[in-house]
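Standup notes
- HV: blocked on the assembly model, inputs below
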Amino acid sequence: MESFNEAWAMICDYCKRQVTDVAYKTWIARITPSKLDFDKGEAVLLVPNNFHKQTLVRCYKDLLDEAMLQLFGSNINITFVVPTEDNDLVSGISPNLEDEYTFENFIVGPSNKFAHAASLAVASNPAGAYNPLFIYGSSGLGKTHILYAIFNDIRKNRPDLKTLYVKGADFTIELIDAIQHGATSAFRNKYRNADLFLVDDIQFIAGKDSTQEEFFHTFNSLYEAKKQIVLTSDRPPKEIKTLEERLRTRFEWGLIADIQPPDFETRMAIIKRKAEMLDFNISNEISEYIATRLKKNIRQLEGTVKNLKANYLLRGEKPTLSSTHDAISNILNNDQPPPLTVENIIGEVARTFAVDEEDIRSPKRSSSVSAARQVAMYVVREITQLPMVEIGREFGGRDHSTVIYALQQVDKNMKKDPTLKSTIDDIIKNIRDK
Ligand code: ADP
Ligand code: MG
């Protein structure tokens, strides 16, 4: 066995021959092997989320078992694991992600120095500097890192303060759950008692009425009590189309700081720092090779370094230009669309329309569910370009003519109703940027 990656490639190849292309792409291709130990008979496979995990256990575990047995002649005990952060794909290499997101580990350059300075000011003087602080920038440029840096700094220097970090999407999920279980007052207590409230990817609350309502009150009560609020987003407030006006103006009350893609020197410094943190040596030549090819996303820079380290661990190979080239293509391929699955889309639409995900797939015909379902079909078609027959199948085995009708309805309604159009635009953007 040359390597871990090759072993996994063989398993994938085996599975690919046994299932449909869509099933392969949706379920198998999105697994990242974290450990394949044929001597001990253990495999640890990372999967994107719990739903994915359940489906694999239910429908594809037998196939994976069979593939391992056929290819390697031994029974392998498979464990599926959902990583806490999607970028932490090589397990054992970066154990406590959030602990490492500190100011010390944040490389400052012209692209992020403003956001960095503002974050430092907020951390050293909560609610005294800028409130709220709103940080925006594209995916992979360090928003979550810097938000956690504030969090970690305050926890260390001001342990008396109650700090609360939440992702915008989780705020929504928690709220829906609280409403369903009659636990809204506990929900409110939790959020309105924070001294420092950090919300990552706030754009996900846009278009969701009850979430925005609740967030509005949370914001007001914290703001009035002079508590620090820090928000991140992939775009500035004015570009979050279905954000309520009263929230938009509030988000603009304090300071808005953007993070841009890093310049060459900053990219070099980041590569060096990430290698250092992995206790791994990368030559200047290799760093430059990476820094000249990956310019837009720091997560990809880091991913490449991790990939090289994993290769070194597994095969004892020091990075060469050619293995670096492969590592970069790997990262670029892995970063491409396929996380855009039907289940993600249905999830996002369900949250936006405040209906159950299962109802969207079910035969229910109540008007709120039907409307959400039509939009979900529309978004699925826009994003995945799946054939109508497949889309019908994903929505509880509906006929392709039902799908065509749904798409026409949504098209027609969007022309009449600009809000619906903005809502759908935001849904698409949210899913693409996830
Ligand atoms: P975002 O939240 O903007 O999508 P993240 O904060 O998750 O991006 O950053 C992606 C990865 O890049 C993280 O592992 C983070 O540590 C790293 N990173 C981003 N910016 C920097 C920086 N300035 N210095 C060091 N690492 C960085
Ligand atoms: Mg983030």
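- HV (later): unblocked. Residues 87, 101, 105-107, 112, 137, 139-145, 270, 298-299, 302 surround adenosine-5'-diphosphate (ligand 1) (CB under 6 Å). The radius of gyration is 23 Å.
- Next: hand off to the docking folks.
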